[in-house]
Amino acid sequence: MIAILVVSHEPLGTALISCTRHIYGSLPPQLAALDVIPDEDPEAAFQAARGLLARINDGSGALVLTDIWGATPSRIAQRLAVEGRVRVVAGVNLPMLVKAIGNRRKPVDELCEQLVGSARDAIHLTDAEPDAKG
Hints:
- The chain is of the alpha/beta class.
- The protein has a single domain, classed as 3-Layer(aba) Sandwich (Rossmann fold).
- It has helices at 12-24, 42-56, 72-78, 94-102, 108-121; strands at residues 3-9, 31-36, 62-66, 86-90.
- Helix 2 (42-56) crosses helix 3 (72-78) and helix 4 (94-102) runs antiparallel to helix 5.
């Protein structure tokens, strides 16, 4: 099963993981978060991320989700990428994480393509309901 690591600005990753516990009733397996704190040494954060990934990856591959493309957590996540084995997707949000958890028996490349497409489709502008009297 594909391992999932969220590398993000503090406290987003931990909060997202906590939400999955709420949704699924328990923490899904092979799921972890690394919250990058302000002024943290990027090399130390990378080593921590690498260690977490090694702990949760059973050899089936891994998906690293990060928040803002180009920011420090994203640059750390990109260093974890391994062609065909560890993929990185920026723009993590709760619907994306839930979709990833529910589909992680697929090959990692296929899972990534599905996540990017569904993330685009998951954003909606919702206007207020018209007033019942109006």
